[in-house]
Design a protein that fits this description.
Length: 398
């Protein structure tokens, strides 16, 4: 239990953290990785280099300062981050390391403004926040391990099938090497995969949505090849496309994630995806089509052209109103009438194709895509609480 004085000090630092948050988190990662380079085997180095991880952490630290006396308000964020932590193998012993270097970074960036009183207050507050994360994540580890067919950390699965879905997207069907089944999951969840890439010093962990309905036999992940394998974001996707073949093994976490389909809702369902963001929505669509056959469903997908469109036939075979938007359709697309709209999805077009606006909306895709869709949905009168979404990588703000 934090004292009133500690709460007062922490809350008073919130404006400072809002202003200098990214400077602090950037310095934090520099200090921590210098002292503990082994943690580079866990943390996503791509998100470090692009700055997204620093931004996400800064947002979380700021929220913790604002709601330090009402931590129940940030429990949803704690759970969302907890899923990611559990899937990559963050353990209780990592939290003291994080706390030590976060305080060092605050002191380093704020200089004399970070008085001993402020540092002491934040040390106390961090202990309470860390305990909340550890408690939530412990429950998640136990749940993952105790599920039928489940496991705690990483398990070796082999590539039973490798299927090209488009010019840049490939699916990998993963089964346990020991012949056992795999645990069930909720439509929309993801798994982490851990790979050792030749020539790279540290292991790489990435999250990929499960793109099929649960079946107890295999997981299907669907991966887009990034254009440049020399860029940080292309390292794992190009490795999977170019070097991982059928019969090879990959270390896989148990499923995780809170971006899941609400199967208790009877409202119309609207799924909107951009590019490889189709992956979690395919799982949602397949499960809803099977278990809620009377539910009104609309599936809207945007891609560059037919060459980049994954799961076209598979999605079309399910009972949903399907609309396709191609940014730059090819001559073949035009001849075959493979799409409903050319260019980008707009509010005016959504107004026409979504019959009942009082629906549950799920969307996934690149950040710029989701910002545009989020704004368009609000323009046509969709309530904020009806819009559910997931980012590629650390949680950001729309």
């Amino acid at each position: 239990m934090l004292s009133a004085k500690t709460i007062e000090i922490v809350k008073s630092t919130a404006p400072v953290l809002e202003r200098y948050g990214q400077d602090i988190t950037k310095r934090f990662y520099e200090l921590m990785f210098k002292a503990h380079p082994e943690l580079l085997n866990i943390f996503n180095q791509t998100n470090q280099k692009t700055g997204r991880q620093q931004t996400a952490l800064a947002n979380t630290v700021y929220a913790a300062a604002v709601y330090i006396d009402q931590l129940d308000k940030i429990i949803p964020v704690v759970k969302q981050i907890g899923h990611k932590h559990r899937s990559i193998g963050i353990k209780p012993e990592h939290y003291p390391i994080v706390g030590e270097h976060l305080l060092l970074a605050i002191k380093d960036v704020l200089k004399d403004a970070a008085t001993d009183e402020i540092i002491h207050a934040w040390a106390e507050a961090y202990g309470v926040i860390a305990d909340a994360f550890i408690s939530v994540e412990q429950e998640m580890y136990e749940e993952a391990e105790n599920k039928e067919g489940g496991w705690k950390d990483f398990k070796e699965l082999y590539v039973a099938n490798k299927v090209k879905e488009s010019d840049v997207i490939t699916s990998f069907y993963l089964k346990p090497k020991d012949g056992s089944g795999v645990s069930s999951f909720l439509p929309g969840q993801y798994v982490s995969i851990r790979v050792n890439i030749p020539g790279k010093e540290y292991t790489h962990i990435r999250q990929y949505s499960l793109s099929d309905a649960p079946n107890g036999e295999y997981y299907r992940i669907t991966v887009k090849r990034e254009a440049d394998d020399q860029k940080p974001e292309g390292a794992v996707s190009n490795y999977l496309h170019d070097y991982v073949k059928e019969g090879d093994t990959i270390e896989v976490s148990a499923p995780a994630g809170e971006f899941v389909l609400n199967m208790e809702s009877e409202k119309p369902l609207v799924l909107i995806s951009g590019g490889v963001g189709i992956t979690p929505l395919m799982s949602m669509l397949k499960v809803a089509a099977k278990e809620q056959p009377d539910r009104d469903m609309t599936f809207i997908h945007a891609a560059r052209s037919g060459h980049y469109h994954a799961f076209r036939k598979e999605a079309a075979s399910l009972d949903a109103k399907m609309f396709v938007c191609y940014e730059k359709p090819t001559e073949e697309d035009v001849a075959a009438q493979n799409f409903d709209k050319e260019g980008y999805i707009t509010a005016e077009w959504l107004q026409q194709v979504i019959e009942n606006k009082d629906a549950d909306y799920y969307m996934c895709g690149p950040l710029s895509f989701m910002k545009a869709i989020y704004q368009a949905l609000q323009e046509i009168g969709v309530k904020e609480e009806s819009i559910h979404y997931e980012f590629f990588g650390p949680n950001m703000k729309l």
